[in-house]
Amino acid sequence: MMQLQQFSSTDNLNADFAARLVDILQQAIEQRGAAYLVVSGGKTPQALFNTLSNTDLAWDKVTVLLADDRWLDANQPDSNERLVKATLLQNKASNARFISLYADTASAFTGAAEVLPRISALPTFDAVILGMGEDGHTASLFPCSAQIEEGLSDGAPAVLAVEPQTAPYQRMSLSLPRLLDSRHIFLHLVGSNKLTVLNKAMAEHDVLAMPIRAFLHHPVAQVTVMYSDN
Ligand SMILES: O=C(O)[C@H](O)[C@@H](O)[C@H](O)[C@H](O)COP(=O)(O)O
């Protein structure tokens, strides 16, 4: 099930989104002593990360991890880990705990066994922020990959290695069931192209063609779409 929240500008979107996330994380810390936040890479969340990093919170009780990463050393420009460390884990958020999806092996497929226990050991997440590509991928659950059926299956491991055919780098991605195991799920979209893709995803049900549909049409999970045109 999905609920669309539309904002008049990215500034308004980011202010509202950051406040909402901080409330969720704060509540988790009060109730359970710790909070778990899953974020996405890509261009869309960068301004949100800057806002969050300047917000007061007991960040030392917050664990941050990525929904997916490219199989790159964290010093590489296209590493999502590098992006999160440079934008979110700064300022007031510099003492948050970060869990990497990377291991120093040549292939994501051989590294998966090392990464898996880090993620499968985690409790229910408090918030997951998803992005969406124009092909309807989310995290690194790419429609063009041979791993898509496994990643969307009920019995999928918490993380899996993925080799997209239409995007660079091998990836490590959280699976659909691991991402759904969250108290709150958001989809963060900026730009009218993304709204067109969202409408296409809502119009039909084939999840292998557009993996984001597995979230948007999920019978139980609530997905809040945080959207602005610009
Ligand atoms: O590593 C990544 O690229 C992501 O996690 C991916 O799922 C991303 O969220 C979408 O591709 C949207 O990316 P943009 O925000 O750059 O459009």
From TrEMBL:
Entry keyword GTP-binding: no
A Pfam match: Glucosamine_iso
Residue ranges of the Glucosamine/galactosamine-6-phosphate isomerase domain? 9-216
The UniProt keyword set, sorted, is: Hydrolase
EC number(s) in its UniProt entry?
A: 3.1.1.31
Q: In which pathway does it act?
A: Carbohydrate degradation; pentose phosphate pathway; D-ribulose 5-phosphate from D-glucose 6-phosphate (oxidative stage): step 2/3
Keyword check for Hydrolase: yes
Q: Which reaction does it catalyse?
A: 6-phospho-D-glucono-1,5-lactone + H2O = 6-phospho-D-gluconate + H(+)
Which InterPro entries is this protein grouped with?
A: 6-phosphogluconolactonase_DevB (IPR005900), 6PGL (IPR039104), Glc/Gal-6P_isomerase (IPR006148), NagB/RpiA_transferase-like (IPR037171)
Membership in a protein family: Belongs to the glucosamine/galactosamine-6-phosphate isomerase family. 6-phosphogluconolactonase subfamily.
Task of the protein: Hydrolysis of 6-phosphogluconolactone to 6-phosphogluconate.
- What is this protein identified as? 6-phosphogluconolactonase
**What organism does the record attribute this protein to?**
Rheinheimera aquimaris
